[in-house]
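Hello Y.,

Per our agreement to keep a running log of every chain we model this quarter, I'm adding this entry. I've kept the format consistent with earlier entries: sequence first, then predicted structure.
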Amino acid sequence: MNIVLFGAPGAGKGSQAKFIVDKYGIPQISTGDILRAAVANQTKLGIEAKKFMDAGKLVPDEVVNGLVAERLAEKDCEKGFVMDGFPRTVVQAKVLDEILEKLGKKIEKVIALNVPDADIIERITGRRTSKVTGKIYHIKYNPPVDEKEEDLIQRSDDTEEVVVKRLNTYREQTAPVFDYYKAQNKTFEIDGTKSLEAITKEIFKILG
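Predicted structure for the entry above:
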């Protein structure tokens, strides 16, 4: 069961990926996690990636693709995996197909969580982190009970200006990836504004 979870930043991919991991016993593959692990383990590609990260630059595709290829070849991916936040471009999607072909695998299902921009902006800009406990809240959907207001901070990349930029980038670079998989008859779309439980139920129905 090789799955790609698709959707804009803040669409809820990470939350749903965890439910899939728990139910089907397959790993969640996130490029952020792969990068952090490779840097911590000081692998060849990890050392290469760290140079770019330390310079505040984006890690180039060839390094990210190499890390993804290494991760997908690991034993825990034999029964399948769920990709979260990758591929982000059509070029990456094509490379992913090549990586999987060498492993005798292919992407089977691409599940998109569709959420309007206004909802995404509200979700992300409403997030607050406690500098005391490290817990993450939402001022509307999950307000803190025992935290002081002055202890709650908004991350610099959770401001409306940054979120709008990220959504524009998503539309320009990542949205075409869905069309790429649609041409292969692998796509399913879900209303991402439904409750967490309703979305999970729909995903499980698609996966069977």
